[in-house]
Specification:
This protein has 30 helices and 12 strands. With about 850 residues, the chain is an alpha+beta fold. The strands form 4 sheets. A 4-stranded antiparallel β-sheet has the order 2-5-1-8. The protein has a 4-stranded antiparallel β-sheet with strand order 10-11-9-12, with helices on both faces.
């Protein structure tokens, strides 16, 4: 291994001369690669939907696909609105709602023939005006609009409508609040629910313009005719076109353009909630914050380079390296065709911040050797011989930390791990093979500045950071025992906080308080029925199975148990049971005593037949054409992790008891709540997996590459300290473990080990030269200490930039990583020397030249 490391060092030593000899060819390759990657940038696609976290063959994903195949999508735009006159039943409010409803339903009348519109995603719009209302006439059921054209113009009429509405199932907290101040519009969409074959037809223009008959046919397709066996359990499922975040922006912009017209906004205040507005917000937030973080990081790098190197060329080349690395990475993402999660913003920052680390080490070493009166070529060879290996090892270990996330069973985490690791390697490649060429063109030190045998006093003057470092370079050496005890006590304290970490992931909770989208969701939870949903599929296993009164009674029992057990969070449940009761009541002159399930199967079958004739569209949203499969929709306020787990466990328990009574039933849960719960489970396991794999692989890599079991073991110690510290802080401060903070541990390990490797590789070379622990530590401090501090400074301040994010997850992510980087550099500068001093006892080293030792000690 020692021979291999020596050969690697010799390889990096000859790299500067080799690339300089072929500079023209290298620059041509650089330009061609960069242009090719720039061409891939427009192909980058971002998506943060819940489905992006799961593999397509996941059981939870397949259950959701089965639901979509049977009943269509569940991505609803729910617009909560507040009547400015305080009454959603007032004439002005209802006219405004009716106007919006008609514009959304009839938007195609304003389009030219053959044109498409973002509003094509709308499949239905239901409001207080056109909500279905059942009436019986001459033994038949008639479904009509609740208000329709009959807008009330007086108080008596309004009160009558309120009385009718309050007695109508599923009107309260869906279309109006208890105090009638707030209302709701339900805009159903086909997002993530269009079969690929239909999407291809639409893309080819076959369904751009439809006559009435075609429209009916297409509506039936969009509602996924339930005669299809693909929705049945155990049978092949259709593939759906997955919408990405960018698809939601034009849709929401078009909807908002309508509702914000003065004739509507003068009377109503709108609070849009659901997946479409959340995606709309997230997309714009990513674009804004990605630009803010990228620009801020570049400014930060420039300031650090100016302070550290005091040369414009250093700023230009550092920015050139990080921007090039980012272009190469994002171009690779674009050309790969892989849809990325919104966490891509973390990659952008990370490549900008980490990509500069290798360049700072090389430039800092170059400046160090130029101050030793070395020529430009000599300084390049020397710094590449000593720092090239360290940069290689740090890049490999950091990329390993990210690549280990490929083993995490969360698709979005796998993508982040893959491309973040690749980005680190890109930054290393650009630094090693192109920085020498850049320095050839424009060096931060004049190539003639240090050719004389003697240096001027100004040239000998040390930077302020070097002066500060020399004040602390012997702390770990002189007080090694005390330092180790202190760090051990601190580690034990934070270790007790680790069991307190809670898994939490909510679309609402991750948004900072005070943002419009957070306010809108809070209004929906407070005054209306909330936006969370749980879908329960009930499969009887046979045609007409749902025409059995016993089966409907079991469904009714399940709904009642859920509503009773979770009355504080569950708004209501709806299913075929509710419309059956309502239809039976309507057929019996509205007598409330008939709001029950008919016990006679023949009466039940007749009731269902009459309802189907009255409103086939609503019936298809509740039960399959063959009455084999039904859905129960559970509407809930925004649930936290504990509520979600309790609800899912209770539903599973209730379902199990029902299946005992009716063994042929198959009950499956799906929808946003089960998907989120599964994600909680994955996050918990992924934290353990990523930590275990990253630590194991990096530890093994260090043991091998450092050429010493002793050094490899020492390298692990200071890198565990920031991990324990950050994990303990999360537990003590109640910071949740979610899709953002789950990235902290692998990143902490990957980053913190970098400085340790730089320190130990230089220490190892110094020990080979001097064979004295004290001298080796001091020389290492002076050669790499400045670069370690400045790279850590760039990272920590850069991470703190996430504090401005509207995403609470990014806020915690930045804060924790900033703390971790700060703690890691302290561990490397204080704890690591103390451990080295304790392990490498004076008695175990060879005799050293006393004059050299005295000279170093006197200088200290």
């Amino acid at each position: 291994m020692k021979m291999l490391l020596k050969r690697i060092r010799l390889f990096f030593e000859v790299v500067p001369d080799a690339v300089r000899r072929h500079r023209k060819l290298m620059w041509i390759a650089f330009v061609l690669i960069t242009l090719g990657m720039i061409a891939g940038l427009p192909r980058v696609i971002v998506n943060s939907s819940m489905l992006s976290f799961f593999e397509k063959d996941e059981p939870i994903r397949q259950a959701y696909d089965r639901f979509r195949a049977q009943f269509g999508g569940d991505e609803v735009l729910y617009i909560v609105y507040e009547a400015k006159d305080g009454d959603v039943f007032s004439e002005r409010s209802l006219k405004a709602v009716k106007g919006i409803q008609e514009e959304l339903l009839n938007y195609r009348l304003t389009l030219k023939e053959g044109n498409v519109s973002p509003l094509d995603h709308i499949t239905d719009v239901t409001t207080l005006v056109n909500a279905s209302y059942l009436e019986a006439k001459e033994g038949a059921l008639i479904s009509r609009d609740f208000i329709g054209e009959n807008i009330p113009t007086n108080e008596s009429h309004r009160n009558k409508l309120k009385r009718l509405g309050i007695n109508e199932p599923n009107y309260l907290k869906i279309f109006f609040s208890e105090d009638y101040r707030f209302g709701g519009m339900v805009i159903e969409t086909d997002f993530n629910a269009i079969p690929i074959d239909m999407a291809d037809r639409q893309a080819s223009g076959q369904s751009d313009v439809l006559d009435d008959d075609d429209a009916v046919s297409l509506d039936e397709d969009m509602e996924f005719s339930n005669n299809s066996a693909s929705a049945n359990l155990g049978e092949p499922l259709p593939k759906f076109k997955e919408n990405v975040m960018q698809d939601y922006v034009p849709f929401m912009d078009s909807v908002l353009e309508i509702v914000q017209k003065p004739e509507y906004s003068d009377h109503l205040t709108f609070y849009p909630v659901g997946t479409p507005p959340f995606m709309h917000f997230a997309t714009k937030m990513i674009l804004e914050e990605m630009g803010m973080i990228a620009l801020g990081t570049l400014v930060l790098i420039s300031i650090v380079a100016l302070i550290l190197f005091r040369a414009l060329s250093a700023i230009v080349w550092l920015l050139g390296i990080v921007i090039t690395s980012l272009i190469w990475l994002m171009g690779t993402v674009g050309w790969s065709g892989i849809v990325m999660p919104d966490l891509i913003i973390i990659i952008v920052f990370f490549i900008l911040a980490v990509g500069v680390a290798d360049a700072i080490h090389i430039l800092s070493g170059y400046m160090f050797y130029r101050r030793q009166n070395m020529s430009h070529p000599e300084a390049l060879r020397c710094v590449f011989r000593k720092s090239g290996l360290a940069c290689f090892l740090t890049s490999v270990t950091t990329s390993i930390g990210f690549f280990s996330m490929i083993l995490v069973p969360i698709v979005s985490m796998q993508k982040i791990g893959l491309f973040a690791g690749l980005g680190v390697l890109y930054a290393f490649f650009v630094t090693i093979f192109f920085l020498p060429l850049m320095l050839d063109i424009w060096s931060p030190v004049s190539k003639k500045a240090f050719t004389s045998a003697k240096l001027s006093a100004s040239q000998l003057k040390l930077p302020i950071l070097q002066v500060l470092l020399r004040k602390i370079e012997t702390i770990g050496i002189q007080y090694s025992g005390r330092v180790i005890v202190l760090f051990t006590v601190i580690s034990v304290f934070f270790a007790f906080g680790i069991p307190k970490i809670k898994v939490e992931s909510s679309n609402i909770e991750i948004i900072r308080k005070g943002t419009p989208i957070r306010i809108a969701f809070n209004m929906a939870d407070r005054f209306m029925g909330g936006t969370d949903n749980l879908e329960i599929l009930v499969d009887t296993g046979k045609a007409d199975g749902l025409k059995d009164p016993q089966v409907l009674a079991l469904m009714d029992s399940l709904q009642h148990r859920i509503e009773t057990r979770f009355s504080d969070t569950i708004t209501n449940t709806t299913s075929l049971v509710d419309v059956t009761k309502n239809s039976y009541k309507a057929l019996n002159d509205g007598d409330p005593t008939y709001f029950v399930i008919p016990k006679d199967p023949r009466v039940l079958a007749q009731t269902l037949f009459l309802f189907n004739n009255a409103n086939q569209k609503d019936r298809r949203q509740l039960v399959s054409d063959d009455y084999r499969i039904a859905r129960i929709t559970v509407r809930a306020k925004s649930l936290n992790t504990i509520n979600t787990i309790e609800l899912m466990n209770a539903v599973d328990h209730f379902a199990a008891t029902l299946i005992d009574q009716y063994p042929d039933l198959k009950i499956t849960t799906t929808g946003q709540i089960p998907l989120r719960m599964k994600m909680f489970d994955y996050i918990s396991w992924s934290q353990l997996i990523s930590f275990g794999v990253t630590l194991s692989v990096i530890s093994l890599f260090l043991l091998v590459t450092l050429g010493s079991f002793k050094l490899g073991f020492i390298a692990i110690i200071p890198n565990l300290f920031p991990v324990v510290t950050v994990a303990g802080l999360m537990g003590y401060l109640g910071i949740p473990l979610d899709v953002h903070t789950v990235l902290v541990i692998p990143i902490v390990i990957g980053i913190s080990v970098d400085d340790t490797i730089h320190f130990l590789t230089h220490f190892r070379l110094e020990m080979e030269t001097h064979s004295n622990t004290r001298m080796a530590i001091i020389h290492t401090f002076r050669e790499v200490g400045q670069a370690i501090v400045f790279t850590s400074l760039v990272l920590s301040i850069g991470f703190f930039m996430f504090l401005a994010s509207k995403n609470q997850g990014f806020f915690y992510f930045g804060t924790l990583n900033a703390i971790a980087v700060s703690v890691a550099v302290i561990a490397d500068l204080i704890l690591l020397p103390a451990v080295l001093r304790s392990v490498y006892k004076p008695s175990t080293v060879h005799q050293v030249d006393k004059q050299e030792l005295l000279a170093v000690q006197e200088e200290v």
